[in-house]
Amino acid sequence: MANVGTSDNSIPADSKRRPARLRHARDELEHSLRALSHDMAANFMLLDNSFRRLKASLAAGDPGEVQPLVAHVEACLRESKRFLDDMAMLARSGTLSMEPCCVEVGEIVEEVLFEQRELLVERRVEVDVRPLRAVWCNRHRLKQVLTNLIRNAVKHGCDPQQPRITISAEFRRNRITPPNSPLVAIRVHDNGPGIDPRHHEEIFLPGRRLLSSSEEGVGMGLAIVRKIAEHFGGSATVEASCRNGTAFLVALPAPPEPARHQGPGRFPTETSELRRIEHDTPHEEQRPHRRAEKPRSKPARHR
Question: I need a surface site. Which of 34, 52, 174, 273 has the fewest CB within 10 A?
Fold first, then answer.
């Protein structure tokens, strides 16, 4: 009687790949949960600080402080709702919303600077925002990228005596895939002591932090930045040629031609799908060379 058995050749190829796909899905889910937990914790710290200051202002009868603090609390609550929506979607489908659309980087920078204003004021950070451009990315994920880059620069990068951050953008050509496709390189440059080139790749690994850093943290911020950038066909690196401080470069695809002509909004893509964006109006031109100041009774409003 012939010996009946199975060999690797008789197992369907799809079945062989299934364990690898399951491991990949598990790793992606774990990373998404860690990223959301990291960013939610940072947002709740901002919210808690604003609530404390709001209570103190009300107790002291200082009406000039109440309005800007209420606006800041509202902004943080909107972010909290977005995080909760992300968690709910992750629980339902195991993934986050990653649909790309045409997003004005300037709008997102203004939102992030407003939400992080207490940190900027506390550390006396001067922020120089140069003219920025639109990118092809998911709006919420781009906000995660910029929030983590700006917080990282403020907490770990800036010179303690005269802290300064410069945010700019420029067009580049993609040298990988697709070849020669336009990219927008977003540059966040601080004026601190810089990072040893030996650590330029290590700092993007989850859970890795430089031993020289005295700030609290779990080492997830830059890992989140790179993961999101690479998902959209871009990259996140430390500028090797920077000789003064540290410059982080996040390259993301420029919007396709239909998006550039129509601006932010809904329009058909190559796959005939409709992409979403929450803001319908282009952002106003950035005001360069701004120093973070304590808000007055009528602060500039950020979208």
Answer: 273
